[in-house]
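subagent[fold] <- orchestrator: predict structure for attached chain, return tokens only, no commentary.
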Amino acid sequence: MPFIHTKFPGLVIFEPKVFGDSRGYFFESYNHQLFVDEGLIYNWVQDNQSSSTYGVIRGLHFQKGDKAQTKLVRCLNGSILDVVVDLRKDSPTFKEVFAIELTSEKKNALLVPKGFAHGFSVLSDMAEVLYKCDALYHKESEGGLLYNDPALQIDWQIPLDKAIVSDKDKIHPLLANLPSDSFF
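subagent[fold] -> orchestrator:
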């Protein structure tokens, strides 16, 4: 089965079947019916792609309220540590962190439901990341959580002196200081 359900409700790892031979490989990175059969029904409306060098940390980002996004994240080239924080008040994993390495070699993906802050660090020399979203980006609804919040104890697997973080991501609030409309 290509789906692995984590202890975080709705957070699912997708490991597709890869067919390889001397010519290369083939796999279905997304098959609507396969996801529907698993009860994972989404209307993807936007794809986002980024390219980053080693040491880049992006996140932790989310969209608030009715503009929240479910994401299907995978690494097209290279390797990333994909990290999420559960911001759903009624979840048994509320305020807990989950991390997984997504690689172009494994071709795995992470389905991140609405209600999570999301980010990643680049572990390879460079990485290209693609993620599908079930809601369009809405600037006024964006929120963030400080990537190095001591309460979260996230090991980004990047030495601090090698971390490359945007100015915007350096000023997000701590989990303890998130506005109440940041929780789901």
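orchestrator: received. Logging for downstream: The chain is about 5% helix and 40% strand. The mean pLDDT is 97.
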